[in-house]
Design brief:
By secondary structure, the protein is of the alpha+beta class. It folds into two domains: about 100 residues, no CATH class; about 55 residues. It is built from four helices and three strands, in the order ααααβββ. The chain has a three-stranded antiparallel β-sheet with strand order 1-2-3.
């Protein structure tokens, strides 16, 4: 690549991961969570996230700021993509139940600040893709959330999480 493009070397990938780790610590400090107990997962199984129209409202600006910080981190941490995307659905009217989930994701990040993607230069270069859906778990309108990822050998290269725009009336399985 150096022959075709003007490049400079900043060292091994540890620099990038170190930058991400510092950012995580800065975010935790910013939101007063630097001393919280770490979590082992970013989202509980059967999380039950819903619009919660009766819960206590929380500061929208603070909530959106926390979500924005997490969205930046999803660039190198696909493990927080799904829970972060779930919490973005409630930015217009966040409740305390939604804030609990956002704080859980941040507590998970506190316990795993240097975890990230690793791209070895050797090995297989077979392209593989995986896709999953929760089949209508969004209780408000029964829309599914679909997530997928693609690997180039052992390297994760793309990932996505999206709520479907229509309701599926049937499913197909192999």
């Amino acid at each position: 690549m150096k022959q075709k493009f003007e490049m400079s070397s900043m060292g091994e990938m540890k620099f990038f991961l170190g930058l991400q780790s510092k950012y995580v610590y800065d975010v935790l400090e910013k939101f007063g969570m630097s001393e919280t107990t770490p979590m082992s997962t970013p989202l509980a199984t059967n999380h039950g996230i819903n619009p919660d129209l009766t819960g206590e409202k929380v500061d929208e600006t603070l909530y959106c700021s926390m979500i924005g910080s997490l969205m930046y981190l999803t660039a190198s941490r696909p493990d927080i993509m799904y829970p972060t995307c779930l919490t973005t659905r409630y930015q217009s009217s966040p409740r305390s139940s939604h804030m609990v989930i956002v704080k859980r994701i941040l507590r998970y990040r506190r316990g795993t600040p240097s975890l990230g993607l690793w791209y070895p230069k050797d090995g297989d270069f077979k392209l593989e893709g995986f896709l999953d859906s929760d089949f209508g778990c969004y209780k408000l309108n029964s829309k599914s959330t679909t997530a997928g990822c693609q690997f180039f050998g052992p390297r994760l290269v793309t990932w996505k999480c999206k709520k479907q725009t229509t309701v599926a009336l049937s499913t197909c399985e192999e």
